[in-house]
Specification:
Largest sheet of chain A: 4 strands, mixed
Distance between the termini of chain A: 21 Å
Structural class of chain A: alpha+beta
Strand order of the largest sheet of chain A: 1-3-2-4
Number of helices of chain B: 5
Strand content of chain A: 5-15%
Number of strands of chain A: 4
Radius of gyration of chain A: 15 Å
Radius of gyration of chain B: 14 Å
Order of helices and strands of chain B: HHHHEH
Helix content of chain A: 40-55%
Oligomer: heterodimer
Largest interface: A-B, 22 and 17 residues
Strand content of chain B: under 5%
Structural class of chain B: mainly alpha
Helix content of chain B: 40-55%
Number of strands of chain B: 1
Largest sheet of chain B: none
Shape of chain A: globular
Chain lengths: 169, 108
């Protein structure tokens, strides 16, 4: 049983609480405001990030070798685990490889916590209100690569994350 | 066993850098005055390393400083309980890397 709607609602609540009105969403500031320690380190290229609790403090590790946009998505994804799946972090360090892998994108693939974390991250980094404001009544043609790239840059996300977000609206 | 963790980290760094340079274990071992088997054991963290070998490794792997292969400081035995992982499956070498991060995390 996954709870995508709940994950999205939690992300939107953070956007409101922090009064985020313009892109890019200050994801690291939000995480720190929630009492999360964010630390960057050069991990093996396959690993994107991790979330765990140490001495009661939630900690997120992000692979510093990845592209900054990917690091932002990783951070948002790990923040989801802390906000939504904290009970599971009490006994084990949660490790994530690529969170936007093809198998994670398919609805059938992988477990509900990862899908929830991706939904949370997408909503947090690309909130509907900010997307709508940026679109300003236009529809974003996903085949217009230049336009998609421009939007991705504005939100500081990968074009892949943006495309996936728009297709799952 | 905690003592071996620093050797695992060194081994990981050596193996990664050697692969980056496209050198064989035999080529690097020859420059350092070790057998290929010893270097293989060092890379897997099963063999303790002499200090002069560490410096020779730095040179052989075209690095500037031992800090390119080793952390500046290391907390031995701190939080000795094993770290449990969940989520994506990780290899032994990734696990060593992540364990080290978890042990140091929050202290920096």
């Amino acid at each position: 049983m996954d709870n995508i709607a709940h994950a999205r609602a939690q992300a939107l609540q953070l956007i409101e609480q922090h009064g985020i009105k313009t892109a890019p969403v200050p994801i690291e500031r939000i995480a720190r405001a929630l009492g999360v320690k964010v630390q960057y380190a050069p991990f093996d290229g396959e690993l994107s990030g991790m979330a765990f609790i140490k001495d009661g403090v939630p900690i997120i590790g992000v692979n510093s070798l990845h592209h900054p946009n990917r690091q932002r998505f990783t951070l948002a994804h790990e923040l989801a685990h802390i906000q939504l799946h904290r009970d599971q972090l009490e006994n084990a360090v949660h490790v994530d490889k690529g969170s936007l892998r093809r198998d994670l994108l398919s609805a059938a693939g992988t477990d509900s916590t990862e899908r929830e974390a991706n939904a949370f991250a997408a909503e947090l980094l690309m909130p509907p209100a900010l997307l709508a404001a940026a679109l300003d009544g236009r529809t974003l043609d996903l085949e217009n690569e230049e336009l998609v790239a421009g939007f991705a840059k504005r939100f500081r996300v990968s074009t892949m994350a943006l495309q996936h977000r728009l297709q799952n609206e | 066993m905690m003592d071996m963790e620093i050797y695992r980290l060194l081994g990981l760094a050596v193996a990664a850098r050697r692969a980056e340079l496209g050198l064989t274990q035999a080529e690097v071992a020859a420059q350092i005055g070790l057998t290929r088997a010893s270097l293989a054991n060092i890379e897997t963290g099963r063999q303790k390393v002499m200090l002069h070998h560490v410096y020779r490794l730095v040179t052989a792997l075209k690095r500037e400083s031992i800090l390119d292969l080793l952390p500046a400081s290391f907390a031995f035995g701190e939080s000795a309980e094993p770290v449990t992982f969940a989520g994506s499956a990780v290899s032994e070498s990734q696990k060593a890397q992540l364990e080290h991060f978890v042990r140091l995390a929050g202290n920096r």
